[in-house]
Design brief:
The complex is a heterodimer. By secondary structure, chain A is an all-alpha fold. Chain A contains 5 helices and no strands. Chain B has one domain (33-138): Fumarate reductase/succinate dehydrogenase, transmembrane subunit (3 helical TM bundles of succinate and fumarate reductases, Up-down Bundle).
Chain lengths: 126, 141
C-alpha cells in the first residue's frame, strides 16, 4: 500500500476505536494525573488551614474565590471519578462484571455516578 | 492501571529502556506493584471517605474543629498511613503512565532521558506529598 495514499477521515471507525470502556479507562488515568498535581494544592490548603485562625480564614477565602473553588471542584470531581472507577476495577479483579456487556454497563455507570458527584460537589461548593 | 491483570515486567521495552523501567518499578515485580496499587488505593479511599464524613457532619468547620480533628492521635496515625499509601499508589500510577507514553515512538532517541527526568520530578513531588502533610499534622499545637 502506498504510504501517501489519500485517506478519508474514518469517523465511524474512530468512534468504534473509542468505545465507552476506553473513555472510562482513559478518564481513570487523566483524573489520576489531575489528583497527582492537585495534591500540591491540598497540602498547601491543609498547612494554611491548620496555621492559626488567620491561616484558616485565608484558606477559606482561597476556596471561596472562583479560581480556588474551580480547582477544588476539579480535584474533588476527579477524586470521585477515580474512586468509583477504582471500585469498578477492584470488582473486575474478582471477575465481577467483566463480560463485554457488563463492562459497558459498568463504564456507563461510572460516568453517570461521577457526573452526579460533579453536580453534587458544585452545589456543595457554591 | 487500565489492565485487569498484572502488567508486564519491562513495560514492553527492550535494552536500556527495559533496564530503566525495571529498576524504577516500585516492588521490582509486576505482581508486587499490582497488589500494592490496590491495597494503597483502599487505604487512601477510606481516608478520603473519612475526611468527607468529617466535613459533612462537622459543618460548618472552623479552625478549632479542624485542628482538634487532625491533631487527634487516630487521625495522625491515619494521615501517616494515608500519605505513605498515596506515595506508593501515585508512584505506581505515574510510573505506568510514564513508561506507557514516554517511549522512542513518541519522543525519539532521547526518550530514556525524558523518562528519567519525568520520574525524578514525580519522586520530588511524592516526597513533598509525604513530608508536608506529616510535618503539618504532627506539629499542630
Amino acid at each position: 500500500m502506498h504510504p501517501d495514499r489519500p485517506v478519508n477521515l474514518p469517523l465511524p471507525r474512530l468512534a468504534a476505536a473509542m468505545p465507552v470502556t476506553a473513555v472510562a479507562s482513559i478518564l481513570h488515568r487523566i483524573t489520576g494525573i489531575v489528583l497527582f498535581a492537585g495534591t500540591l494544592f491540598l497540602c498547601y490548603l491543609l498547612d494554611l488551614a491548620l496555621t492559626g485562625e488567620a491561616g484558616f480564614a485565608q484558606a477559606a477565602a482561597i476556596i471561596d474565590a472562583p479560581p480556588g473553588a474551580l480547582a477544588a471542584w476539579a480535584i474533588l470531581t476527579s477524586l470521585a471519578y477515580h474512586v468509583v472507577a477504582g471500585v469498578k476495577h477492584l470488582l473486575l479483579d474478582f471477575h465481577i462484571g467483566d463480560s463485554l456487556q457488563a463492562g459497558r454497563i459498568g463504564s456507563w455507570l461510572t460516568l453517570v455516578l461521577a457526573a452526579v458527584a460533579a453536580v453534587g460537589l458544585a452545589i456543595w461548593l457554591w | 492501571m487500565a489492565h485487569p491483570c498484572p502488567r508486564r515486567g519491562g513495560g514492553g521495552g527492550t535494552g536500556d529502556l527495559a533496564l530503566v523501567t525495571n529498576v524504577a518499578s516500585f516492588g521490582r515485580s509486576g505482581l508486587a506493584d499490582f497488589v500494592l496499587q490496590r491495597v494503597s488505593a483502599v487505604v487512601v479511599g477510606l481516608y478520603a471517605l473519612c475526611l468527607l464524613g468529617f466535613f459533612v457532619t462537622a459543618a460548618p468547620v472552623d479552625h478549632a474543629a479542624l485542628a482538634d480533628f487532625f491533631e487527634s492521635l487516630p487521625m495522625r496515625v491515619f494521615t501517616t498511613l494515608a500519605v505513605v499509601s498515596l506515595a506508593a499508589h501515585a508512584w505506581i500510577g505515574m510510573w505506568t503512565i510514564g513508561t506507557d507514553y514516554i517511549r522512542r515512538h513518541y519522543f525519539g532517541a532521547g526518550h530514556t532521558v525524558y523518562l528519567a527526568i519525568y520520574l525524578i520530578v514525580c519522586i520530588g513531588l511524592i516526597s513533598v506529598y509525604v513530608l508536608w502533610p506529616l510535618s503539618v499534622v504532627w506539629t499542630v499545637p
